[in-house]
Design a protein that fits this description.
By secondary structure, the protein is an all-alpha fold. The protein has a domain of about 100 residues. About 50% of the residues lie in helices and about 0% in strands. It is built from seven helices and two strands, in the order H-H-H-H-E-H-E-H-H. It has a two-stranded antiparallel ribbon. The longest helix has 27 residues. The termini are far apart. It comes from Streptomyces peucetius. This is Transglycosylase SLT domain-containing protein. InterPro entries: Lysozyme-like_dom_sf, Transglycosylase_SLT_dom_1. Keywords: Signal.
């Protein structure tokens, strides 16, 4: 808010506040520009020293258990999203669900035996109807090497879609 006054003291105070505000904003912009992103962080070395909780205290804490997912479409999508996030593969629940429902109606054993891929001996399979060569090329480590495994199928298809279309969210028809 700007206040206009006729007094010399008020004008001087206004100028001082304006300059201070501009200087603070400029310093913040410089700090944001110079702050390293996680991608620019120095890699850890074997000489790194971890400071924190002593080993005795760590032993007393319960180990964190592996996250459990439901063995259904909702669980498969949620597990795939966690893997995708860890691997930097973009996509949302809605984008995956929409494409799965169009491609297989949520059936992990769905197989297309009529399209050109099937006619050439490589039928599309699984939740997102992936062919074996595409699955092999875009398989995400840490998932089974099984084309019809629901989570492996979703993550490989999302990885492929990210490479070709930017994200599975950008796919609105057969891909």
């Amino acid at each position: 808010m700007t206040a206009f006054t006729r007094s010399t003291t008020g004008t001087a105070r206004f100028r001082k506040l304006s300059f201070t505000g501009i200087a603070a904003a400029g310093a913040a912009a410089v700090a944001l520009t110079l702050a390293p992103s996680p991608a620019h962080a120095a890699p850890a070395t074997s000489a790194s020293v971890t400071v924190g909780v002593p080993a005795a205290e760590k032993a007393d804490k319960p180990k964190q258990s592996k996250k459990v997912y439901a063995d259904n479409l909702d669980g498969w999508i949620k597990e795939a999203l966690d893997i995708m996030k860890a691997e930097g593969i973009p996509g949302t629940y809605e984008g995956l669900h929409r494409n799965i429902m169009r491609e297989s109606s949520g059936n992990p054993d769905a197989q297309n035996n009529w399209d050109v891929n099937a006619q050439n001996g490589t039928p599309s399979k699984g939740l997102l109807q992936v062919i074996q060569p595409t699955f092999d090329a875009y398989h995400v480590e840490g998932t089974p090497r099984d084309l019809t495994d629901p989570v492996a199928n979703i993550t490989a298809a999302a990885n492929y879609a990210a490479d070709k279309y930017g994200s599975i969210d950008n796919v609105d028809s057969a891909y």
